[in-house]
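Model it.
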Amino acid sequence: MKAVVCTKYGPPDVLQLQDMEKPVPKDNEVLVKVHATTVTAGDVRIRSFTYPAWFWFFGRMMFGLARPRKTIPGDELAGEIESVGKDVKLFKEGDQVFGLNCSFGLGGGNAEYKCLPEERGLAIKPANMTYEEAAAVPFGGLTALHFLRKGNIQGGQKVLIYGASGSVGTYAVQLARCFGAEVTGVCSTTNLELVESLGAEQVIDYTQEDFTTSGETYDVIFDAVMKTSFSRCKNSLKQKGVYLTVDWPLLQALWSSMTGSKKVVFGVASTENEDLIFLKELIEAGKIKPVIDRLYPLEQIIEAHRYVEKGHKKGNVVITVAHNSKT
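Modeled.
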């Protein structure tokens, strides 16, 4: 099979398209013939290892000290089940599925085939979606769902999404609206109309206005792009307000829990099948949808990484897998 391989940390050029052995599913796994996958900001960070200094040792222990421990990038995928392990009960050959890798590091989705366990991070693809659309759901959708639930979103609350035009932010805006919140999205000038179209009642252009100086306060502030901080947003939170972040501000979270009513929440998104099914049902009901910025074939993975690395993508960057070669 063809697969993208990353054998060292560095710029996009470290990625190579190579021939590899097709994986064989374990007893509890399914083998997915991948039709679409993605490049996320997380893929770019691991490949380049552009993390804060405090995270260097911890990150290298997680992902690989001298080089990536896992060599094939890509967390998300959508495709068709080609074969199943002998103990698999939830899926069968021919099922059209979408899902994501559930372990730390490069996820293995940027390949023609990928084995996944049946019990985590896998579900039947939404009936009203293409493979390309479905591949753009799991990471951003599950991350947004996890954090908004952690924030205990209630109907009528005021919620601000910082980075509302990104892969996590676009789902956060839509899901917060599904939960009945009044949503404010923060993004750049070029994405104002997009975020408004997703359901935000108010959209703030961060290049023109600093929301922390407006005097408005919110029940929940969700930084979906690691571009702000609790200390900066604290005065914009109501009493007992919650600051959600995809970053890992360990000391701030501990300090806030000890010293005040405003809390910091971080963590790792759920990969439960039930949560993917929840998103699938919302998609089929027309309540949420993916935002796809660009499509690249697998052969142009370097160009896709270069684009995502610029930090200006809208929603998701999807990789199509054609299966034109022998596998």
